[in-house]
Amino acid sequence: MEVQVAPLRAWDDFFPGSDRFARPDFKDISKWNNRVVSNLLYYQTNYLMVAAAVVSIVGFLSPLNMLIGGTVVVLVFMGFVWVSHNKDILRKLKKQYPTTFVVVIMLSSYFLISYLGDVMVFMFGITLPLLLMFVHASLRLRNIKNKLENKMEGIGLKKTPMGIILDALEQQEDSINKLADYISKAKE
């Protein structure tokens, strides 16, 4: 299936007043994870624009260190994904605790970058955009369009860059299983 770029959502939908934001239910990790995944899929182009702006500013100020930092993070991410596909214990950890998996990748990248380059470039150029995305995706309430886009991505009707990343983190399979359960209950 061909990869499609998700549309840029209106900025007043992306960051409206406080009425569309709420604290997640920290007691229900599954629901919180579902909110984050849905928002990451729905607002992925907006997140890309925000991240590109931050990376551009930091890259302009320190291009070599930004290049080194970005390369290290990509290589560490690919290495962890490859290892987790070959080791069942890591695969289960990645599926059950995706945030922990990402934190381990970021900490590993941090330590490698501390030997190779400027740590502040890593903090502002790489970690800050990821943190902004995670905080927004955690706090932003979903709407009907958001839920529909997530279902279409989950069942394979659409394939987007964020969907590919979430597949690598094994966060899409639960959506497919939930949709299959919902369909089977609707038939009964």
From TrEMBL:
Membrane topology (UniProt): Multi-pass membrane protein
Protein name as it appears in the record: PRA1 family protein
Species lineage: Eukaryota, Metazoa, Chordata, Craniata, Vertebrata
Family affiliation: Belongs to the PRA1 family.
GO biological process: negative regulation of transport
Domain of life: Eukaryota
Membrane-crossing segments per the record: 40-61, 67-85, 97-113, 119-139
Transmembrane as UniProt keyword: yes
Pfam families, A to Z: PRA1
Gene Ontology, cellular component aspect: cytoskeleton; endoplasmic reticulum membrane; plasma membrane
Places the protein is found: Cell membrane; Cytoplasm, Cytoskeleton; Endoplasmic reticulum membrane; Membrane
Residue ranges that the Swiss-Prot or TrEMBL entry lists as coiled coil: none
Keywords: Acetylation, Cell membrane, Cytoplasm, Cytoskeleton, Endoplasmic reticulum, Membrane, Transmembrane, Transmembrane helix
Organism: Chionis minor
Keyword Membrane appears in the UniProt entry: yes
